[in-house]
């Protein structure tokens, strides 16, 4: 589905991804792990740029609109499916069919309040689920998520992850919960300072390998840090 | 001079400098009280307010409704032309056009349109709609610039442009924009009432008549009704009702007298031109002599009217600014429940509401009845209205400030704990208000104070339209220059951009 060699990306003028080679097959469930600043989000948004015509993207910047209702925030996932006049009319007075669909979706996501509630009245966990609902409502083949469950408890994360799997053929997700990654995904890749340091199928991978990945600092990077601090 | 005083901080220096300048200006300003017996007049007025007569005014409901309908239609007209311009406001030419339109006060616009349309509703609606539209363009542009861009980035692939714009950008700014429109509507009500002073059939017309004739019971009733009208906006101005109001306002407009085309043409091609150009028929007639008399004409106007007018305007505005500062600091202190307790602070809150509801112009008019024609009534009016407004906004901040656990609730504790926290914001608002004060100062000329408005008003009444227009240009220029300078100073000294939108914070209160 997607393949690149020696990819180098910048984030705010700093090198975020260095000479990375990766191929992703359709139908894969791929988890990306790594410490903060490893370049995960940069890689993810690049993947989305490559796949955007068939992918739904749940970004860390949720892009939610404070002044709009929950319903409208979720509906925004369907903007591309309708004519602009339909979208504008819906902004003033919601249509029945999308309203029913969004209400249903929100209930599945355990958002148990009226969808007319303003976004500004929601808690952090609720917002994250609204952002997720918007991505799900896009009904795309591929789901690309950047820590979409970071504000939720582990049990709910598992339930919602199942929902995401049910509705998408391919799933690419950055996760900070490594047990979630190990239990549910086919393939796990680990990023460290913009480079690929781990790429394994679920059955080859053990918890120790992941712990090792998080522990050791690669020699090259460490010496680089030392060199800088000497100056 | 401050170098040897290590404990005198930035804001103390600024305050001291402001008061020093104001004291100098006060010395040169004309503040003599010319009144035979202000106390008996005051007693009569107080009696009027104690026993207001709500049934004295014929056409009372009509006047109230006309005030509302001019304000409403003015705002709608302003939105119609201002909101689209907000999208292209980054264009320099558009920005300049808006700056000029905005810098001329509603009353001056009204005086101008009065010559063309007469006492027609068109005059009132255009006079409010033109400067308001220009303000909308600028403020909406500012608000749009501040809207987050993350939503647009996360919209699904293939979303069309219109949906993108409305869901990604406009939806973010809808709440602040609605709040700002509400605030502007309140301002428009004040402007609409004041238009009565130059003859439009709004509340100001009846107010002026009542007070001038000494019918204080009647005048007091009108003023109380006006304050109640503004204080209860949130009750009668429901979003769903607005459409109904607009339609009703359109249908109940007083009939529009026909505009004489020939007169209008004469006005545009002859009357507004300087005398030297009036009798020319072709461009080729412009020679050295014409240029000479043109330059003499403008020089005379500049030296005899524009400069003296500007000086008086600036003197008046600066003194009023310092006085407004005093009112704001004292008012904010008294209205803070951290200092005076619940009962007193809510009483002061009510006073602040009344003071900021009444237009400066009406205050100045009342004070002038009491104290006679000098700059003092105008200073008091500007200081009370603007000081109350700033105090009101500041108190909202001070009510949410955190105080230390050993806060003692006395004046010393307030000065240590609360005042330093709210002061920068108070000063920011004060300096932003300077632009507004300056604009308002100009119109006090119509009450007889020799500011720029005085010369403009006499230009119109003596049918010297060209000089009136020339002086209006000078006023606009003065406002724009002061606006640019104060913005630069503010950004340089506080590092913050004070935008007009800050004031819309007001609207969520009523």
From TrEMBL, chain A:
Locations listed in the record: Cell inner membrane
Gene Ontology terms for molecular function: ATP binding; ATP hydrolysis activity
Chief site of localization: membrane
GO annotations of cellular component type: plasma membrane
Location of the ABC transporter domain: 2-218
InterPro entries named among the record's database cross-references: AAA+_ATPase, ABC_transporter-like_ATP-bd, ABC_transporter-like_CS, MetN_ABC_transporter-like, P-loop_NTPase
Membrane topology classification: Peripheral membrane protein
Name by which UniProt lists this protein: ATP-binding cassette domain-containing protein
Originating organism: Shewanella atlantica
Species classification: Bacteria, Pseudomonadati, Pseudomonadota, Gammaproteobacteria, Alteromonadales
TrEMBL record, chain B:
Coiled coil: none
Transmembrane segments: 63-87, 107-130, 165-181, 188-207, 219-237, 244-268, 310-335, 436-456, 468-485
Gene Ontology annotations for the cellular component aspect, listed alphabetically: plasma membrane
Taxonomy, superkingdom: Bacteria
Signal sequence bounds: none
Keyword Amino-acid biosynthesis appears in the UniProt entry: no
Membrane topology: Multi-pass membrane protein
Primary location: membrane
InterPro entries cross-referenced by the UniProt entry: MetI-like_sf
Record localization: Cell membrane
Cited SUPFAM superfamilies: MetI-like (SSF161098)
Keywords: Cell membrane, Membrane, Transmembrane, Transmembrane helix, Transport
Name of this protein: ABC transporter permease
Species: Shewanella atlantica
């Amino acid at each position: 589905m997607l393949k690149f060699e020696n990819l180098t990306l910048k984030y705010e003028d700093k090198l975020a991804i260095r000479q990375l080679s990766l191929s992703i097959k359709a139908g894969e469930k791929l988890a990306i792990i790594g410490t903060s600043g490893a370049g995960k989000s940069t890689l993810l948004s690049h993947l989305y740029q490559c796949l955007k015509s068939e992918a739904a993207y749940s970004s860390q910047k949720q892009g939610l609109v404070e002044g709009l209702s929950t319903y409208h925030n979720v509906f925004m996932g369907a903007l591309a499916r309708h004519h602009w006049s339909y979208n504008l009319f819906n902004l003033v007075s919601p249509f029945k069919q999308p309203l029913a669909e969004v209400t249903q979706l929100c209930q599945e996501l355990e958002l148990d309040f009226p969808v007319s509630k303003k976004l500004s009245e929601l808690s952090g966990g609720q917002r994250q689920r609204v952002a997720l609902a918007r991505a799900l409502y896009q009904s795309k083949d591929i789901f690309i998520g950047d820590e979409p469950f970071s504000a939720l408890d582990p049990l709910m994360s598992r339930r919602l992850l199942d929902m995401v799997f049910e509705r998408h053929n391919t799933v690419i997700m950055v996760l900070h919960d490594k047990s979630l990654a190990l239990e549910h995904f086919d393939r796990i890749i680990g990023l460290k300072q913009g480079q690929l340091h781990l790429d394994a199928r679920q059955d080859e991978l053990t918890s120790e390998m992941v712990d090792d990945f998080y522990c050791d600092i690669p020699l090259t990077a460490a010496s680089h840090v030392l060199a800088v601090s000497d100056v | 001079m401050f170098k040897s005083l290590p404990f005198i901080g930035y804001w103390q220096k600024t305050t001291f400098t402001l008061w020093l300048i104001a004291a100098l200006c006060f010395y040169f300003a004309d503040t003599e009280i010319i009144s035979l017996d202000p106390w008996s007049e005051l007693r009569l007025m107080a009696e009027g307010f104690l026993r207001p007569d709500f049934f004295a005014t014929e056409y009372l409901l009509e006047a109230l409704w006309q005030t509302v309908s001019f304000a409403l239609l003015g705002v709608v007209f302003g939105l119609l032309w201002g909101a689209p311009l907000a999208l292209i406001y980054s264009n320099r030419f558009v920005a300049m056009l808006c700056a000029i339109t905005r810098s001329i006060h509603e009353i001056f616009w009204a005086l101008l349109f009065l010559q063309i349309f007469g006492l027609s509703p068109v005059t009132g609606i255009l006079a409010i709609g033109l400067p308001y539209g220009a303000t909308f363009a600028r403020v909406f542009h500012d608000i749009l610039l501040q809207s987050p861009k993350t939503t647009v980035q996360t919209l699904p692939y293939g979303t069309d442009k219109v949906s993108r714009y409305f869901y990604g950008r406009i939806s973010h700014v809808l709440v602040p924009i609605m709040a700002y429109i509400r605030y502007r509507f309140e301002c428009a009500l004040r402007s609409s009432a004041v238009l009565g002073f130059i003859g439009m059939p709004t509340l100001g017309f009846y107010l002026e008549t009542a007070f001038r004739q000494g019918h204080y019971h009647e005048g007091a009733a009108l003023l109380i009704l006006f304050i109640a009208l503004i204080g209860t906006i949130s009750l009668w101005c429901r979003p769903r009702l607005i459409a109904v109001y607009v339609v009703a306002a359109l249908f109940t407009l007083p009939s529009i007298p026909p505009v004489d085309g020939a007169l209008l043409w004469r006005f545009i091609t002859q009357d507004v031109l300087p005398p030297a150009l009036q009798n020319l028929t072709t461009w080729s007639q412009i020679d050295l002599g014409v240029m000479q008399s043109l330059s003499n004409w403008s020089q005379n106007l500049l030296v005899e009217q524009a400069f003296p007018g500007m000086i008086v305007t600036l003197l008046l505005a600066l003194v009023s600014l310092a006085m407004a500062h005093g009112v704001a600091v004292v008012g904010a202190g008294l209205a803070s429940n951290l200092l005076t307790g619940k009962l007193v602070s809510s009483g002061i809150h009510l006073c602040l509401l009344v003071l900021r509801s009444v237009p400066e112009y009406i205050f100045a008019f009342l004070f002038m009845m009491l104290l006679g024609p000098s700059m003092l009534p105008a200073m008091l009016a500007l200081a009370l209205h603007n000081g109350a407004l700033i105090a009101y906004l500041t108190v909202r901040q001070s009510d949410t400030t955190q105080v230390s656990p050993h806060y003692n609730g006395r004046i010393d504790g307030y000065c240590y704990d609360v005042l330093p926290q709210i002061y920068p914001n108070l000063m920011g608002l004060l300096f932003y208000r300077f632009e507004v004060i300056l604009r308002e100062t100009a119109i006090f000329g119509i009450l007889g104070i020799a500011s720029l408005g005085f010369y403009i008003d006499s230009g119109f009444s003596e049918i010297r339209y060209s000089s009136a227009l020339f002086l209006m240009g000078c006023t606009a220029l003065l406002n724009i220059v002061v606006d640019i300078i104060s913005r630069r100073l503010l950004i340089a000294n506080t590092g913050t951009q004070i935008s007009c939108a800050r004031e819309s914070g007001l609207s969520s209160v009523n």
